[in-house]
Amino acid sequence: MPANLTFDALKKAVAAGEIDTVLACFPDMQGRLMGKRFVAQHFVESAWEETHCCNYLLAVDVEMYTVPGYKSASWEKGYGDYVLKPDLSTLRRVPWLDGTAMVLCDLLDHHTHEEVAVSPRAILKRQIARAKAMGFDAMMATELEFFLFQDSYDALNDRNYQNLQPLGRHNIDYSIFGTTKEESVMRAIRNGLWGAGIPIENSKGEAEVGQEEINAKYSDALDTCDMHAIIKNGVKEIAHQQGRAATFMAKYSHERAGSSSHVHQSLWKGGKPAFRDEKDPHGMSDLMRHYVAGQLAHAREITALLAPYINSYKRFVVGMFAPTKAVWSFDNRTAGFRVCGENTRAIRVECRIGGADLNPYMACAGLLAAGLAGIERKLELEPAITGDIYHAKRVREIPHTLGEAAALMQKSKMLRAAFGDEVVDHYVRAAHWEIEEQNRVVTDWEVQRGFERL
């Protein structure tokens, strides 16, 4: 996309007074963009080489609480610094923020200048390198669903997120007139992201009241995850500018369907789709069959990367388009893994397990690790399931809780071999903390259920 900046173009824009701020960002454990706002002149003079941040940023929860029990950062170690190393290939303008550019950064150890092992971007890059060593380019796309609300973030916060009113009033899935009513926000999102160098293809109404979906072009795995993080941040900022709010919670209400982040995947070799075999009845190569078999074999072990919060598991409800079974099928939206583009150049596997709350780097790294393990072991693909898979008997189920998923991840030999013990233990600790907090906090549901009746 031409909106991406070269460093020379950035320097010229700064000299001309067109850009006065540079955002140096990195994805944290939750996939959120964290970092600093630089005076642009200082960035082009020196900060483009490196800057620093506190290492607690990969050891906090969603509330920015310093979680005990991490080996990489703690009070005992004094919470030192990481190096933020800008990846200048990610430079871009941010059209919805005046005079602003953005760059994504890698996190490096302050002493060794090696990439921080538990950094999400580094975790994904290692799996991409693993695929490259096998001769493959990992190609992916993430579909993002979210809800738009009538009121602003501050207004909703001030009333404790009660009486949430979606911007839409009824299901407008694929409706042109229905989405026209929300076009002031969605058009700003589409065009703003396009201007930031994100190749947005389309937006549409989704299958629940107030729900939207936005899609960016299929790309290499790292670029896809970088775009995903920028899209989420951009949606929130643009909604905020218009006095609205957006949420990427997997499930904001038990009365509503949840929001997903389906991940489409394929491997390419020499610019050609390695998943395609024109001689196969469905167009699937043996390589693709091994890849999908690996994801099925390890689906339960990687679920904590696709559904990382307590709330994530509220989305897995029969009949609401979120899967409950970790099986595969051809073009069947009730399966955890759906083969799309049958008998075409675009043949790929779509993982439907992940919610919109996932960290894209962790989710894609886990999926890629599982698929590559299937290729390495030449796993045989089990038969496809057909029909209403919600009611299929004696088939592999998606874990029902974060606790179950975390226990499976902790025991996963595949993930420990692919990620390393340090990384697995780090993200298992994150899951355990979520569970500890849930067990500690008294919820509205408990008060409503028990205040008078017990």
TrEMBL record:
Residues 120-454 form the GS catalytic domain. Pfam families: Gln-synt_C (PF00120). Keywords: ATP-binding, Ligase, Nitrogen fixation, Nucleotide-binding. SUPFAM superfamilies: Glutamine synthetase, N-terminal domain (SSF54368), Glutamine synthetase/guanido kinase (SSF55931). It comes from the Bacteria. InterPro entries: Gln_synt_N (IPR008147), Gln_synt_N_sf (IPR036651), Gln_synth/guanido_kin_cat_dom (IPR014746), Gln_synth_cat_dom (IPR008146). Its cofactor is Mg(2+). Residues 17-112 form the GS beta-grasp domain. Catalyzes the ATP-dependent biosynthesis of glutamine from glutamate and ammonia. PANTHER family: GAMMA-GLUTAMYLPUTRESCINE SYNTHETASE, TYPE-1 GLUTAMINE SYNTHETASE 2. Belongs to the glutamine synthetase family. This is Glutamine synthetase family protein. It comes from Albidovulum salinarum.
